[in-house]
Amino acid sequence: MLNERRLEVLRAIVQDYVGTEEPVGSKALTERHQLGVSPATVRNDMAALEDEGFIAQPHTSAGRIPTDKGYRLFVDKLAGVKPLSTPERRAIQNFMDGAVDLDDVVGRTVRLLAQLTRQVAVVQYPSLTRSTVRHVELLSLAPARVMLVLITDTGRVEQRMVDCPSPFGETALADLRARLNSRVVGRRFADVPQLVQDLPESFEAEDRGTVSTVLATLLETLVEETEERLMIGGTSNLTRFGHDFPLVIRPVLEALEEQVVLLKLLGEAKDSGMTVRIGHENAHEGLTSTSVVAVGYGSGDEAVAKLGVVGPTRMDYPGTMGAVRAVARYVGQILAES
After folding, report:
1. Fewest Cβ atoms nearer than 10 Å: which of 182, 208, 290, 313?
2. pLDDT tier at 113 (50, 70, 90 boundaries)?
3. Element (H or E) spanning 171, and its range?
């Protein structure tokens, strides 16, 4: 384990490198930071940090830069989450309060995260597999045609047209709507198939075919929409960091276009705590020069999805972690109130 002084030297190197984009030398460290020791001692500490793989020397400079291992230690031991200022919090609230539906909430969240962190923002839509039913609406469009509208507790809305095998009157439709909602409202999507399986039998024989058709469409919707959806924004922010990517930026951009890669980066929503993956901790080859900061959000204590940012490893971790956490809380509040 590193002693406290060497941890302070590492903290100073990370802060200076993130702030200046320049490799950090011992002279600059002693001038900028109150380390309480001589430049010679700082040089010795830097040599020890380099031997242990926490910092490295770029071939073009006498200064040092943090390695993935150094950033990891900084995040785990040295970096407190930087709280947002009152004006920043107020700006988030004002921006998010205008959202009109779930798509708008996700879109605003992506834009807000990208602006606050100046990184690439990724927001996962609330997963239906972790959602509950708020309401099922059935609307008659024609004697044998019905629109099914499924509304989730997170505000997600899915619509499907149902062509019925025979005409279905308004009275029968209202009856089906009432019975269906009495069984499924407030229940998890995974439980719905079992809750409605015997529903057709409670109707008159001539209506059972239509009831079964409507239920089949409802269940198909649940299956189809378990596929995860994402929204991404701020990709152009990466162009500001061209020199942070040792090869070229193209592999990073290509990786960000693959939804399955992004879902793996964010991780499982049930792991609602903050996760920070740095450099080579990201398994995808195109993203080994990036870091990912992600956290779960939800309409209660349980996370229903993840959001986060992707940027270069030379990242303001305390500020980024604070922004990601703050935005997740606001999104959670909006879902809880919607």
Report:
1. 182
2. very high
3. helix 170-184
| Angstrom distance (rounded) from CA 226 to CA 305 | 12
3-state secondary structure of 136: strand
Each residue's pLDDT tens digit, 258-308: 777 777 877 765 667 888 999 888 878 778 888 999 999 886 667 788 899
Question: Going by C-beta distance under 8 Å and a sequence separation of 6 or more, which residues neighbour residue 336?
Answer: 299, 300
pLDDT at 278: 92
Q: Which segments within the chain are labelled E, that is strand?
A: 55-56, 65-66, 120-124, 133-142, 145-152, 157-163, 230-233, 275-278, 290-297, 305-312
Q: Is the pLDDT of residue 241 over 80?
A: no
Non-local CB neighbours of 303 within 8 Å, separated by 6+ positions: 130, 269, 270, 271, 272, 296, 297
Strand bridging mode 305-312 / 120-124: antiparallel
pLDDT tens track for 183-233: 999 888 888 889 988 988 888 888 889 889 999 988 887 766 555 778 888
Q: Which long-range contacts (CB under 8 A, 24 or more apart) does 178-185 make?
A: 180/136, 180/138, 180/215, 180/218, 181/135, 181/136, 184/133, 184/136, 185/133, 185/134, 185/135, 185/136
Assess contact for 286 and 270: CB atoms under 8 A: no
Q: Give the neighbor-by-neighbor strand order of the sheet with 157-163.
A: 133-142, 145-152, 157-163
Report the residue count for the chain. 338
Tens of pLDDT, residues 9-30: 999 999 999 888 888 888 888 8
* Helices assigned H by DSSP within 118-169: none
- 103 vs 91: CA distance, rounded Å: 20
> What values do phi and psi take at 269, rounded to 5?
-65, -30
